[in-house]
Design brief:
It is a single chain. The protein contains 14 helices and seven strands. It is α/β, with parallel strands linked by helices. It has a five-stranded mixed β-sheet. A two-stranded antiparallel ribbon has the order 4-6. Strand 1 and strand 2 form a beta hairpin. The protein is elongated.
Length: about 350
Amino acid sequence: MTSQISTVGGTTTNITTLPNLSVLGASNTTTTIVDPSIHLEHSSERREVEGGELTTIRGRPVKFNDLLRVFEEDDNFEAVTIEQIKRVEIMHDKFFDGAVMNFNYCTLLVVASVIAGLGLVTNSSATIIASMLVSPIMGPVVAIAYGATIRDRVLIRKALMNEMVSLLFCILVGAIIGGITGTTNLASEWPTDEMKVRCTMSNFLVGIPIAFFSGLGVAVALLDDQTNSLVGVAISASLLPPAVNSGIIWVAAFFYKDGIIPHNEEEYTWNDFQRFGWISLGLTLINIVMIWISSMLMFRLKEVLPIEKKVFWSDLGIARKVYKGKALLAEIPSVPAEKPKTGTREATRDDDRVEMAK
């Protein structure tokens, strides 16, 4: 059977062997393909799902075949409800808000970058940890993973652009702090232990599995509202301090070369400082990539596995259907009220009301 399905934009699409999409027994149900530009357009006014607390899906023991579903791609059309669309909208806004460079994001970025820079030049571990907790640059990374999971190219581009701008800003702040403090007595201890630990290949390699497992944690913590877990992940996945550190290191290379920074017991060359800076920046970049990959993996696992979970996790599949043009929204036409037959008591009463109105 071939049916015509109208899209929200007004065009029609011929679809063969669609399942019966009648709703509540209504045979003349109208189905429309859900348009993400209309239903999933970002809105800061959406906050909670109408009806109260979010529901959870009860689970069952996971079987081997369930794990294989992680790698399956479902391209079939699927009927969705208004309630599901509303939940997807709220989930979408949650990730979008974390990726947009609004006033709060920019403020936290400035604060975190300055705190990290001062902690690095003064060799203060506590200050650097504080900057990790304030840093907002995890938001765009998770938004990239979410956008890639549901095939939202617009969100991916926006989050990726904001992340790159944020990293460039961190490098700039590091260079400014390095330029200001490089002429003081603080520079006599450069590179500090906190600066050097982010410039070694051993730390770079160890950071890869740390970032991977941090991405698994942040994906779970976001949709399940596990605030305590997010704090731990923010500390383990060190994204911002290495980027700031690279800016400080590159400025220190010029000072060291010109003799502004005195040579200490460990003799470094211009090339050493250049290499330190690139390793430090590479640590941030590899952390971003690993968090991106592991977050996508966790999104997919919790979406398809039959475990107890919040309903938002199953809605990831619906969001993907929307962006692939495979989600069909069923609408039941309103049935006009049946007029009473002539001669009945209800019809006589209606006629009397008309006469009185005259």
